[in-house]
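S1.2 Input.
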Amino acid sequence: MRIKIIGSGWFGCHLALSLLEDGHEVELHEIADGIFTGASGKIPARLHLGAPHYPRSMVTQQACKDHQTDFLAKYGNLTRAVPINIYAIANDHSMIDFGTYHLVLKNQIEILTIHDPAEFGLQNVEGAVMTGERHIVIDKAKRFFEEKLKDVFVFNSNDMSEEGWDYVIDCTFCANDEYMIDRFEPCLVPLLEGEAYKAVTIMDGPFPSLYPWNEDSNLLSLSSAKYTPFSKECKTWGEARLLLDNLSKEEIKKQADDMIQSMAHFYPHVNDFRVVDYMLSIRAMPLSAADTRLVHVVKQSDKRIRIRSGKIDAVIEAEREIKRMIYE
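S1.3 Output.
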């Protein structure tokens, strides 16, 4: 079959590679002049274990565990272990207490309880644990796909047509329609230079997360449930794009500074780090009140399929659903 994929983030690149391996003729169209220019290259590339990050959603917990197993079997060489990975419960405004959180975790994964969080530079937390976790090395992943797919990329392309193709698969994080989308969030993730061996995630509510990005370059990403989105009111991708395009450098810096100070309340050492980049992207949030982050694949017509990306490690699940649709 002749298959056109639109969007060269993680989902588009993985599907292109998988369909090529199945013997199909594939073109991968990208509106920019390179890959991973959207959310795939500008958000923390955490491989979630499930319970630590989503203690209130059993569906997401199980999905994360299943997705990680599949992902590591295919792309484990593009990941790296986090040397020190800490999850802590804030003293105030958390949606879960440390006793409940600890119970949820110990029934599902191996954890090490931190008896004195201050020894790890933490303050204003009720309790903390350490657990093993891996993250994707984005620069390594980009090089991998650039080599594997070098003959199928069509850059600077906004060609959405279906003519001449058996299928068109939209992997643009719903940039072209709002079906089953609640809102589009224009997002900021500062990239910091500092000691990149330690991850610190504050749970469970409007809190920040400091996470290794590339240990070899001493880079970490900083995100926040409160400060990463500039807005939660954009109903279309275009609205979110317009908001990002009209932000001043001062507004972006102010949002990053607020995020850093939010983390410094719990982990003061972040003040010793230096901001080296402000990564901007747009994420599509699903129509769901539940705390779930599952991939959604919908067949929009006889020829067109759209993916709402979930976590990066859900690419294998998306592939299975796509192949079920095109082979049935």
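S1.4 Remarks. DSSP finds seven helices and 17 strands in the chain.
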